[in-house]
Specification:
β5 and β6 form a beta hairpin. The protein is built from two helices and eight strands, in the order ααββββββββ. It has one domain. It is mostly beta strands. The protein has a six-stranded antiparallel β-sheet with strand order 1-2-3-4-7-8. The longest helix is centred in the N-terminal third of the chain and has 11 residues. One of its GO terms (biological process) is oligosaccharide transport. This is Oligogalacturonate-specific porin protein KdgM.
Length: about 110
């Protein structure tokens, strides 16, 4: 829970950066896995600055308990992800975007 609050605090800083951003977005996805009858949700906040730097934060949730097949029932955290990228403009049609993503779940963190 502390990790989720820290991530929410970090994403709260994005609106200030969005004032100077070339583009920004919010992406919500809902998933239902038929084999496990489990619902999951993801919310991603992203921003690309005029300087070429991009920042994304993603919150992941899933249903838990006895009623996993009921959407939005007993929702628990399922990890989060932070991504930093930079866009190099090679010419008018081509962009190169290296990125660094840090994904964290309850028991581990991966790069």
């Amino acid at each position: 829970m502390k990790k989720t609050l820290a991530l929410i605090s970090l994403t709260a800083l994005f609106p200030g950066a969005w004032a100077h951003a070339d583009s920004a977005y919010i992406n919500y996805r809902h998933q239902y896995a038929e084999s496990t009858r489990m619902h999951a949700d993801r919310v991603k906040f992203g921003s690309r600055l005029d300087s070429g730097w991009g920042f994304e934060g993603e919150l992941k949730y899933k249903t838990a308990g006895d009623r996993q097949d009921v959407a939005f029932d007993n929702t628990v955290g399922n990890g989060h992800e932070l991504t930093v990228s930079y866009q190099y403009r090679l010419d008018e049609k081509w962009l190169l975007t290296p990125s660094f993503a840090l994904e964290s779940i309850e028991k581990s963190t991966a790069i």
